[in-house]
Amino acid sequence: MSTRSRSEFASGDTISSNAVFAFAAQLSTAAFTAAITVFLVRELGPAEYGIFALALSIAALAILPSDLGVSWSAARFLAEHRHERDSVIGVIGLALRVKVIAGLVVSAALFALAGPIADGYGVPELAWPIRAVAVAMFAQALMQFIYTIFIAVRRLSIGFRIVISESAMELTATVAFVLTVGGAAGATWGRAVGYAFGAVLAMVMLSRMIGGLGASRRTPSPVSARTFLTYAGAIFIIDTAFTVFSQIDVLLIGSILGTTAAGLYSAPLQMIPFLSYPGLALARAVAPTAAGVEGSSGHSADALQSALRLIVIIQVLLVAGIVVWADPIVSLTLGPDYEESVTVLRALAPFVFLLGMAPLVSLPINFAGAAGRRVPIALGTIALNVVLDLIFIPEIGIVAGAWSTDISFLLYVAAHLWLCHTMLGVRLGPIAITLGRCAIAALCTAAFLALIGTADLSAIEWIAGAALAPLVYAGVLIVTRELSMSELRAAGGRLRSVAGRGR
Does the pLDDT at position 332 exceed 50? Predict the structure, then answer.
């Protein structure tokens, strides 16, 4: 490796560049996923698409034990040693061995159990789709692991190329397999081909970055296997808890009120993850700077402080739109049969705000080496959510699930924000001031949207609201001196610079 490439490897990309590439990767994945979904829904029909969806759900449950927290444990130690090339290579070698073994064991078990699982569901045709997703799951987990490495060493420009290449291949392979092989099996094998391509490409990119994968087998890790796996265990508990948290309301509503109520509650939830993309992109760009800097009030705290300010500004605007336009949003996306979901979506507005902040206050704690402190917070969040659900769902109905989520997730985000304050030097006062100014801007924006309409909207009204509401919001923030014209011009310049680099 040349002196120049070593320097580039150590420094990584800028925070703004990484944030843009992370956000672009999320948007491209969402666009390709939407295209695949539309194609499969139309081509397979309800019965075959149901088999495909069931196979993916089974794989989603198995992917957590196939990772065991290894990816983010590796990210923590990689970011901590990112200026030491041999240490980085050693950590990659240790993590890659654990990751491959865990992934192969879980994928092989799922492949072997495909027949019994299909028989248990009473759908023999499910067996081969499960076998295909077992193969896809191993490749997907490996690709995502390597993508996490690029997050840790702050090279998300490389990660973006991997993600968009995999997505394009998955779409191409899925269409080809469905049109030739047909059915859910064809769809799942197309997915497997896409992720296999992505995994191979990721391995090639990783090999180029570290100067050959052989080096990772020969170079000792600066972190012992015991320390590495202990930290991975804490992250695995947190990831499992968060997965349970994301599903517990739907499960309890289904068991207490029935499947129809579960569907009415679950449907608006499917739209919300997209609204977390800005916070997740910022977190992937900023969080690695927290590695090894506990107690520091320098670069890491400044970067995190700026990112938190930005995400508060973004998420409060989204909340204003959801509160006022919940009815037309549900009508447009879900249809007239989901009128009861309007109240749910409106009640979830605080959760939308918190979901944007969550990765920004949690991922830096992982990188700072304090994932263990997050475990009681995660478990406490689930416990509070379950208790509130069991008390209020039978009495109030499905909207109680939204309120329980809001309250318990507020505990989760507030506790993590306090950790960022005490460990990383994040100042709470400026965040509170920004939140207050954004609340004023949100009220003005909400009033503007209400003037346009709150029920059935024409195409012109949709366009006018979407185009002008952000301008109203930004104008109020400029008046309250939360934003300045120079900041907006600087942000535009950075975006143009990154876009030019992407081309």
Answer: yes
